[in-house]
Amino acid sequence: PVDALAHGPAPDVALLIGTNTEEGNLYLVPQGTFDTSQHADVVAVAAQTHSDPHAAAATMAALRPDATHGELRSDLLGEALFGTGSARMAHAHSLVSQRGTYVYRFGFRSTALGGKLGAAHTVELPFVFDIADLPWLHGRAGLLGPDPVPKGLARRIHSSWVAFADNGSPGWNRYRAEDTAVQHFE
Question: How far apart are the C-alpha atoms of 176 and 96, rounded to whole Å?
């Protein structure tokens, strides 16, 4: 998709793109492999996308010295599946678009699965659609867990997405490659 920007309608189209702070948790926590992750698992994930997996694992560990193996594994998964591609897309789009590139980072931590699901992939969707207060999203089996969500967060995020759909701007600063402006939601 990044390469296609040069040949597509990108100059005339605004882009809203973002990631969650713990994207990879979705692929480890529900399966029960988050807590059982070992160093070898971290290196194995790194080997899928890095030419030197040991160096990649060491770099991630240096960035987060107090992180567990599960957290490091999740971070590497999240970067490989969503982070790197989203960052490349935002950067490339910002270089060609006159309409604007808007980047967000969603950090609200779901308390589902004993509080370990966190800001996993898809946790932002109930906020985007302003349905985070619906009962089926809470409780033991709910995506958002048993605890209440921050008051007004869903309305704020939903309003940003609606504003973007209406006029091409979610109401925060454009992303610019030189300053990497990112809107944080927690």
Answer: 11
